[in-house]
Write a structure and sequence with these properties.
By secondary structure, the chain is α/β, with parallel strands linked by helices. The chain is built from 11 helices and 11 strands. Strands 3, 4, 5, 6, 7, 8, 9, 10 and 11 form a 9-stranded mixed β-sheet that branches. The protein has a two-stranded antiparallel ribbon with strand order 1-2.
Length: 315
């Protein structure tokens, strides 16, 4: 039976910072200056470790010190341990409910085309909380990535260690420049160049199945990322499948038109957290505040309701 109370063979832990500083500088005096200790205190700390381990960590000559092979190995391990502790302390403080920073991981296209344009309003309404936005997609490790929450399209298996809270159902449909739709395509999707993306190559097929359309493209073009395909549609380079949150502002401003409305894709956008994000069970007031704001901003998006177009310059 394995002994879970294994005794660790560790040197005096209080002496390790002195050793690490002396090894890094290869100087007892400079280590003492950095740590605001006396030369003798640093020397005694190093001697304690050497005595406990039974090996020499430094070669001393003419008031200079050089690491031995054992010293090199201990320096590497000590630096890694101290850096890890320092990072852990920073993470604990940053992710405490009283921290003024909430670290949010979000899929790049959603962040750039929907979340970021709204964060200014969030900050104005909540000046005491800053959003540290990290752009990333797919599986997330909140602790390893140093994030409090993640926003994802739930098209992959999410670990059961997390709480997954549905934000809204995704709706998508063909979008293009309104003038292009009327004058060039003459309101016929089969006259269009269909824009594809390598990050979601089946977007057109998913929409055709959901809508029952039998349209075929006049030509096709592929882009590396959804963001580029949608921008190409804004620039009259073709017609793309636009998920509603990613094209919401363009539809509202009239830069794009949803030629056939929006159909459900069968996927949801979700908020991934370690604890419940809201309600009586919400343990972190920062996350509860951000979650409530997200749900308010989403509005009718869950039902695929298109925004009313803004008429610029109207009375």
């Amino acid at each position: 039976m394995r002994n879970i109370h294994r005794k660790r063979r560790l040197p005096p832990l209080a002496a390790l910072p002195a050793f690490e500083a002396a090894a890094r500088h290869q100087s007892i005096s400079r280590a003492a200056e950095e740590l605001h200790l006396t030369h003798g205190a640093v020397s005694r700390a190093v001697a304690q470790i050497e005595e406990r381990m039974g090996v020499k960590l430094f070669m001393r000559r003419n008031r200079r010190v050089w690491l031995t092979a054992a010293g090199e190995r201990l320096l590497k391990a000590t630096a890694t341990a101290l850096d890890g502790l320092d990072q852990a302390m920073e993470d604990i403080q940053r992710h405490d409910g009283a921290s003024p920073i909430l670290t949010v991981s979000c899929e790049p296209s959603l962040a750039m085309r929907w979340l970021m344009p709204r964060l200014g309003a969030f900050r104005n309404a909540n000046p005491g909380l800053n959003i540290d936005l990290r752009l990333a997609g797919g599986p997330v490790d909140l602790l390893a990535d140093g994030c409090d929450v993640a926003i994802r399209r739930a098209d992959y298996g999410i670990s059961e260690q997390y709480i997954t809270t549905r934000l809204w159902a995704e709706h998508a449909g063909p979008v293009c420049d309104p003038d292009c739709w009327e004058s060039i395509l003459v309101r016929d999707l089969s006259n269009a160049r269909w824009l594809h993306t390598r990050t979601r190559p089946d977007a057109w097929d998913v929409w055709k199945r959901a809508s029952g359309s039998e349209a075929t493209p006049a030509s096709e073009q592929s882009f590396d990322h959804f963001f580029f395909a949608l921008q190409a549609a804004v620039n009259q380079l073709g017609t793309a499948i636009g998920p509603l949150p990613l094209v919401y502002d363009d539809l509202k401003a009239g830069r794009l038109i949803a030629t056939h409305g929006m159909a459900p894709t069968g996927y949801d956008y979700v908020l991934i957290t370690l604890d419940p994000p809201g309600g009586l069970q919400g343990r972190d007031p920062r996350i509860s505040l951000f979650f409530d704001w997200l749900m308010h901003e989403a509005g009718d998006m869950d039902g695929g309701v298109l925004p009313q177009r803004e008429i610029i310059g109207s009375a």
